[in-house]
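FW: tagging you since you asked about this chain on Friday. Here's the raw sequence from the shared folder, copied in full. Didn't touch anything.
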Amino acid sequence: MIKLTTPISEEEASRLQVGDTVEISGYILCGRDAVLPKVLKMIEDGTVGKLGVDLRGQVIFHTAVSVAGVGPTSSNKLEIESSIAPLSAAGVKMHLGKGELHPETVASLDKYNAVYAVIPPVTALLGAKTSEQKVVAFEELGMEALHLIKVDRYPAIIGAAHGRSIYEE
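HL: got it, structure written out here
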């Protein structure tokens, strides 16, 4: 088990391999299809600094945050998967979610020294490992707003790294 604490360094990201099991601790962002396009627009407009969160070394969990807890959504939804390359270019080192990514997305992760980790759909377990949460931006989206949460030992499996995917045969 590889223990990671956010922010994730370039060196740590470069050492992660497909199939590695990791535990993530520290602050991570949570966002999915409603909010990620808004974050991309902020990157394009040069206003992403207004979030008050540095994207360099950051982890983004493809999830909503609700009273029921957090659990992964499908990362291969158009709005989510199309955000992976630009967010990686902006410094995000890890994307957490579920599902197979397209080969072009896997290649973009490699280009920006970022990885994709599959997190099991275990809402109760993750709830017990989440100690803080706050809305960072787009509060009007409710549970789909951009959240920052503090986690302790979130389990995940590296699903794509260095141009390879766990889903390859």
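FW: Helices lie at 10-15, 36-45, 78-89, 103-111, 123-128.
HL: agreed, and The domain at 2-165 is CATH 3.20.130.10 (fumarase).
FW: great, closing this out.
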